[in-house]
Structure to design on (417 residues):
């Protein structure tokens, strides 16, 4: 007989109804785009589930951004769930810290019958069947309130033996669903990942961390965060999406990351040491923006750019010039938005000129040359100085000493300048 398998969507942290207050202050137009981007990412998740005819969908918490979602956001979510029900696709979900159980006890509307919520006091389990055969036992646990009890373990009781006992069935696959920070964020229902081994669970679908992370890796995960389908702030840079997971008897787990974000956030450092005019700087920034966009699924991007390097433009890049440049860049391409442009450049240094002037900088440079001539002696002196100060001795190798020394020299010369 062919090996049995199941394919499902793992989509966490939808955050329907997420606000964008900071962006709204700087650009109402892009704030409006972001408001539409979250439900658009949700729509792509629904479309993927329908087009690929997956067996089921798991949603590990934070489906809404707050415990009292608007009726509009609830209706968008409800319509998606109803479409999955019409296609015969069940949904298994747990509550998270943003949408604890109390937020699901309103009277907006009844959820469709294909939606199955995990318990909050103890884990609960469901059976996924195909043609009358049990293929997967799915167990999980959610949040009662916005905080999870610190003396409790959200993974408690989620294992194959309890799943079989609760369901009165056996199945080739067991899936665990939780909203947990594991050891990444100890403030949210932390669990040591090693404690999840040996439970007889084939795949742990987690929510809370907003970037794709997986153990052992994203292609063959045992424990995974799918990340949020749409990045919502500058700290959520890069690609965002969902996971389509396939479990097959006798074979490693397989997962495909599917990008769903229509807007991508990026923080970019741009070395401007080779440019000499503002016009050249503008073209360099544009080339960086297009290079990042070329490899992204997202059609639009929001940037926060940091200018670095030694340049003759250092003093020219005043706040007024930077703002004029930012406005000019935003007017040029409607699919890019430059949220901020920061000057982290340094003034150019002419060491030979400083040496020739014979002032304190020249004395410092001569002393620096003597001090760094013998790397072994310098390392020994550094270690002794750290010990005298009561600090931990840094792990500086001879190979990295030159780079560290050069950086220290530049700091002193910049201060003297």
């Amino acid at each position: 007989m062919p090996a049995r398998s199941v394919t499902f969507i793992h989509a966490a942290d939808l955050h329907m109804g997420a606000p964008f207050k900071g962006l709204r202050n700087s650009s109402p137009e892009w704030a409006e785009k972001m408001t539409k981007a979250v439900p658009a990412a949700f729509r792509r998740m629904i479309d993927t589930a329908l087009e690929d005819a997956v067996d089921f969908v798991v949603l590990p918490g934070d489906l809404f951004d707050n415990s009292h979602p608007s009726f509009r956001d609830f209706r968008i979510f409800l319509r998606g769930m109803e479409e999955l029900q019409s296609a015969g696709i069940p949904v298994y979900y747990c509550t998270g810290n943003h949408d604890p159980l109390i937020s699901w006890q309103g009277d907006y509307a009844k959820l469709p019958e294909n939606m199955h919520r995990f318990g909050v006091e103890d884990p609960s389990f469901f059976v996924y069947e195909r043609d009358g055969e049990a293929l997967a036992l799915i167990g999980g646990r959610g949040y009662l309130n916005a905080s999870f009890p610190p003396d409790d373990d959200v993974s408690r009781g989620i294992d194959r033996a309890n799943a079989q006992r609760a369901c009165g069935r056996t199945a080739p696959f067991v899936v665990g669903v939780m909203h947990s920070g594991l050891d990444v964020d100890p403030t949210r229902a932390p669990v040591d990942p090693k404690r999840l081994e040996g439970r007889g669970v084939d795949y742990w679908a987690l929510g809370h961390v907003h970037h794709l992370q997986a153990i052992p890796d994203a292609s063959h995960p045992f424990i995974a965060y799918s990340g949020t389908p749409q990045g919502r702030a500058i700290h959520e840079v890069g690609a965002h999406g969902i996971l389509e997971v396939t479990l097959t008897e006798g074979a490693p787990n397989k997962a495909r990351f599917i990008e769903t974000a229509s807007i991508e956030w990026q923080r970019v450092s741009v070395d401007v040491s080779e440019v000499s005019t503002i016009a050249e700087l503008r073209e360099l920034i544009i080339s960086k923006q297009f290079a990042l966009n070329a490899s992204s699924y997202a059609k639009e991007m929001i940037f926060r750019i940091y200018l670095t390097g030694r340049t003759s433009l250092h003093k020219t890049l005043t706040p007024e010039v930077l703002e004029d440049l930012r406005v000019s860049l935003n007017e040029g391409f409607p699919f890019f938005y430059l949220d901020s442009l920061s000057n982290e450049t340094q003034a150019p240094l002419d060491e030979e000129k400083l040496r020739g002037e014979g002032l304190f900088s020249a004395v410092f440079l001569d002393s620096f040359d003597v001090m760094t001539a013998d790397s072994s002696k310098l390392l020994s002196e550094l270690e002794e100085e750290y010990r005298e100060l009561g600090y931990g001795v840094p792990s500086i190798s001879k190979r990295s000493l030159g780079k560290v020394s050069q950086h220290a020299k530049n700091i002193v010369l910049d201060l003297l300048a």
Summary: The mean pLDDT is 92. The longest helix spans residues 28-51. The longest strand covers residues 133-141.
